[in-house]
């Protein structure tokens, strides 16, 4: 399946969510990762996200069947340019 | 259709993207809005996003058919608590 993960952590902890997400997904914009993932890896990712978050932080995981994402439009600078990410 | 919009603007300009997105969508997490939107409103939103962005900023709009979002999981604090948003 295909997932989009959007994390919202304290500024000095965002790198932890990015590092975690990158084990399974592709970083596509500040705080956003997406990609194909197996059900097993998704279950692992969900557990790891829950363990990571502190009070006041949150993460949303959108789960799509792989063929139902109708359109993905990027506006502005290409956010997959890794140089933009700290 | 259903859309998820994730914006990445300079810190002192994020409120502009939020204000724009809120005309059509629901704010669900820092930098993330989502909701049902008509094709006409989506076309307008796309134009407005393009006009808003400055170099180095970006926004992704995921467009789904309304019945294909398999699952939406929120981890951590309820991000729809508006008190968390500036």
Report on this structure:
The structure is a homodimer of 86-residue chains. Helices cover 27% and strands 36% of the residues of chain A. By secondary structure, chain A is an alpha+beta fold. Chain A has one domain: 2-Layer Sandwich (Alpha-Beta Plaits), CATH 3.30.70. In chain A, helix 1 packs antiparallel against helix 2 (39-52). The longest helix of chain A has 14 residues, at 39-52. Strand 4 (58-64) of chain A pairs antiparallel with strand 5 of chain B.
* Helix residue percentage of chain A: 25-40%
Given this structure, which CATH class of chain A is correct? Alpha Beta
SSE pattern of chain A, N- to C-terminal: EHEEHEE
Indicate the structural class of chain A.
alpha+beta
Taking Cα atoms only, what radius of gyration of chain A do you get, to the nearest Å? 13 Å
Instruction: Let me know the number of strands of chain A.
Output: 5
Enzyme class (chains A, B): hydrolase
Binding site for Mg(2+) (chains A, B): 8
Family (chains A, B): Belongs to the CRISPR-associated endoribonuclease Cas2 protein family.
Pfam family, one (chains A, B): CRISPR_Cas2
Question: What's the structural blueprint in terms of helices and strands?
Answer:
The structure is a homodimer of 86-residue chains.
Chain A (H helix, E strand, L loop, with lengths): L1 E7 L5 H9 L3 E4 L2 E5 L2 H14 L5 E7 L4 E8 L10
Helix pairs in contact in A: 1-2
